[in-house]
Amino acid sequence: MGTFSSQVITNDECSGVKTYVMPTGAKDVVTVSGSMLGGSIHCANTNSKTAALVSSMLDKGTENKDKYEISETLESVGAELSFSSTRYHTHFTGFCLKNNLRTVVSLLSEQLRTPSFSSSELSTLQGRICGNLERDKENTKKLAMINFLRRLFPSNHPNFRETVNESIDLVSKVKKEDLFTFHKEQYGLGSIKIAAAGDVSPADFNSQIFEAIGDWSSKEVEIPKLTEKAREPKEGSEIIKVQDKTSSDLYIGQPIGIDREHEDYYALMLGIYILGGNFSARLMQTVRDKQGLTYGIGSSISGVSFGADGYWNIWGTFSPDILKKGIEATKEQVDLWFNKGVTEDELSAKKTTISGSYKVSMDSTAGLAAKILSNAEHGRELSYLDEYPKIIESISLSEVNSAIKKYVNPNKLYMVAAGTL
Prior knowledge:
The chain is α+β, with helices and mostly antiparallel strands and 421 residues long. 46% of the residues lie in helices and 18% in strands.
């Protein structure tokens, strides 16, 4: 039995809440990481920005405390609480000393259950978000990425993205009543998962959590089934002109048609990691180090969680006057990688890197709690956390090169560049 299987204590005695507690040798420190379904994908037929605004307003005041009282409560015990939203979940993270856990859990419950959604705070938040979005109109990397995804996926796909102007319009239109409605419909018991790591007693932690939220109303929230797949891969290119930029950003790639649970996922992931996953990968070693055409370039798989068919892409940044040369050099490496495959030495080295990074990511209570929570969100057994390095090690060279041939087509790459071109 591995580390996680033997040391993480699970509990689902409170209907609609499942906890995962891992006592460690970290003295006096506890990290809590939790989530519930309720992200932008749950804003069906409504404003897709509502979920993010609801989570961002949770620390702006409750029915009994304004944001200053919340801040003072946390600062008085040296604790932290934060909230965020993704496509699928609302997340919360807490950090505190062992003796102050009850204070943090109580405040967490209050913020989740009884937010005030102040009109003035909402207006301020909307102004700040829209201001950041206005600046994104000058962000060549973000503009290239948004347009790249809009060409690969239909509008109702989880990987589709709104334009910057569309996002500004959506954020501006959210009303206070929309926040209350979303909160009432989505927040509650049912899909809550909470991981805790550090100097923590499973019995005490569960007692405090269940006492704080055990009587919350129950909600039936599920991840909607995927109704459309990615568009078929096709060759194409697009230029987005942004004035007065000294560098341009480039995205090249295509849909892969599989999600993370597919049997070929790890082999393909390793192949793409060898191409451009870190500083010692092919693209950095050639296009950057040998040819001096870029400060940064890499490749990855994304958008493959919770049943969504994802994509692989290369991102690079180039001086506008050598963008064409950079594209040619990048495609040359893709062709070489596709036609000749990767080597045993490359595969062995990247297996070591991935396994090492995985272990390093869990060298703190925050890292442990985050990994345990993510594993739970994806419905995996705790044993997966122990077995992951072995899964990576088991992938053969022939599996990697076969996956590259199966899911990559160098003749059907879509390219988006943004900058002063």
